[in-house]
Amino acid sequence: MLEITNVSKQYAGHRGVSSVNLKLGQGEVVGLFGENGAGKTTLLKCILGYLKYSGAIALDGEPITGRNIHRLSFATCEHSFFPNLTPAEHKTFYEMNFPAFREKRFHGLMEFFQLPENRAVKRFSVGQQNQFEVILALCQGADYILMDEPFAGNDVFNREDFYKVLLGILEPTETILLSTHLLAEVESFIGRAVLLHQGKIAGDVTTLELEESGRSLMDYVKETYQYEGNRVAKALSQMTEEE
């Protein structure tokens, strides 16, 4: 279990995350949602140890250190691959450093995305680079796979097909924590939704609970954030009156 206890991270001039408490069990597929600046990326980077924070983050009761960090992987739109290397060279590097590297999955996903294995990644399009970033995160052999807007720049058909493939390849012990703005697109893919608002947990619900209550994920988000359905009309009215 990945357990986040009372985690806070403050930046100069603004809040990152504040008193976040969250538990992620093995085999869960969790969507992490929130408006821009809600703290999604900050929380992911705290889990990975990229940022200093107050509070505690533990993996099966142990702090995350160099001894167990291999159990976490990260796919980020900021990219973490080596641009001058080819995918084949990345595979060799990962096999040397991650004994649980999933070679069969790697080749399967490379074929699925139709990515060349012997071309430097810097020569890929942005969309292809994002795809390769996700492939590395999924093939490292990690138990907890964190994704931060991993498919920016990819068309909707690629994204939808990939979610279906991902559900088919995940092992029961693999956990996904996916940060995205694409609520409707991932609703059928995730099993649980966690909402952040101004750095704090604003909601935490399973998709089964939503289904049983007859609500969609979008309904739940709007209720939680107290979304005003007439905000556009009010804004247009005010702008028209000013003229």
Q: Summarize model confidence as the mean pLDDT.
A: 89
The helix-strand sequence is: EEEHEEEHHHEHEHEEHHH
Helix/strand class: alpha/beta
Sequence stretches where pLDDT stays below 50 over 5 or more residues: none
Strand content: 25-35%
In short:
By secondary structure, this protein is of the alpha/beta class.
Could you characterize what this model shows?
There is one protein chain. This protein is α/β, with parallel strands linked by helices and 243 residues long. The protein has a single domain (2-242), classed as Rossmann fold (3-Layer(aba) Sandwich), CATH 3.40.50.300. It has nine helices and ten strands. The chain has helices at residues 40-48, 87-97, 103-112, 126-139, 156-169, 183-186, 207-213, 217-225, 231-242, and strands at residues 2-11, 14-24, 29-33, 54-59, 62-63, 72-76, 144-148, 175-179, 192-197, 200-206. The chain has a six-stranded mixed sheet with strand order 6-7-8-3-9-10, sandwiched between helices. It is globular and about 55 Å long. The termini are far apart. The relative contact order is 0.17. The mean pLDDT is 89.
What attributes characterize this protein structure?
243 residues, 6-stranded mixed sheet, 37% helix, 4-stranded antiparallel sheet, alpha/beta, Rossmann fold
What is the element layout, followed by pairings?
Blueprint: E1 2-11, E2 14-24, E3 29-33, H1 40-48, E4 54-59, E5 62-63, E6 72-76, H2 87-97, H3 103-112, H4 126-139, E7 144-148, H5 156-169, E8 175-179, H6 183-186, E9 192-197, E10 200-206, H7 207-213, H8 217-225, H9 231-242
Helix pairs in contact: 3-4
